[in-house]
Amino acid sequence: MHPGLRSWRDEASATVVRLLAYMGGIAALCVVAVYFFNAPEVIAASEPAPRPDWVEVGRPYAAFALAIPEAADAPSSYMIRRHVSGGGRKDILSLGEPRGSAPYLFVEIYRPGNETGTFGEAASEIAERAGELGLADAVHSDDPVNSKFGPLEVVKFSTTRETARKCLGFVRNYSEPRLQIAGWFCQAGEDFIERSMLTCALDRLTLLASGSDIKVSALFAQAELQRTFCGHRSTLLAPTPKHRALFAQKPVYAETKLRGRVR
């Protein structure tokens, strides 16, 4: 073969090889570009939810009791919450439904740890706890009321969630031992629970076990000496007698307008 023809064929083959290499490189770049531009969006890792200050204790061992025979048919609950860092404890007792027309009694015995230094005012303490009831207005202070635990600070407020109700909130603080008794007693309608009904209900709040806290035992023992037995004041009565009006549901009447002549 002529040397010139052989040189041209060799150069053509080399050129084809180079073109194929270039095309392969371009194809590879296209694949890489498509991968980066069409790659799924990387979602930034969300920050973990803040840890709650209070946690509920599973299978709580009751330290207090609220035995009200008049509310035997009402649902009851007992809950214990612990402060994660401070070590405080809240024993929460309730009778009745938080929503509805039937009477509802809520009592919280709070033994603080290191999470707080002082208790707040009665109105703020109740407003902080009663938000789930659907407060219809501000919490208003009322005159104190006497009970076996001593004078209770009393506040009034209304709720609108599902059924309009009137509630008496109460707070009793102790410095030695550091303890707070707070809660509310609600009923449907336009009238508040009678103050005597509130003290009668709290007359049934008793201590079951205080553990090693001798001061709490002494506090409740002293309270038993001040027990009024719902107004009977008889030392011969071991249990508080039933009160016919306690936890009695008031009928809620709907307003009707009669038009025309009644025949």
Task: Give a summary of the structure in a few sentences.
The protein is of the alpha+beta class and about 260 residues long. The chain is about 25% helix and about 25% strand.
Descriptive report:
With 263 residues, the chain is of the alpha+beta class. The chain has a domain at 54-231. The protein has 4 helices and 10 strands. Strands 1-3-4-5-9-8-7-6 form an 8-stranded antiparallel beta sheet, with helices on both faces. It has a two-stranded antiparallel sheet with strand order 2-10. A hairpin with a 2-residue loop joins β8 and β9 (178-188).
Describe the main β-sheet briefly: 8 strands, antiparallel
**Could you give the count of β-strands?**
10
Element-level helix/strand string: HEEEEEHEEEEHEH
- Contiguous helical run count: 4
Strand order across the biggest sheet?
1-3-4-5-9-8-7-6
Category by helix and strand content:
alpha+beta
Overall 3D form: elongated
Q: β content, as a range?
A: 25-35%
Give average pLDDT, whole number: 80
Share in helix: 10-25%
Distance between the termini: 132 Å
Query: Runs with pLDDT <50, length 5+?
Result: 252-263
Determine the oligomeric state from the structure: single chain
Q: What does the radius of gyration come to?
A: 36 Å
How would you summarize the topology of this molecule?
Elements: H1 3-37, E1 54-56, E2 64-66, E3 76-83, E4 89-95, E5 104-111, H2 122-129, E6 140-147, E7 150-159, E8 165-175, E9 178-188, H3 195-202, E10 205-207, H4 214-225
Antiparallel strand pairs: 1-3, 2-10, 3-4, 4-5, 5-9, 6-7, 7-8, 8-9
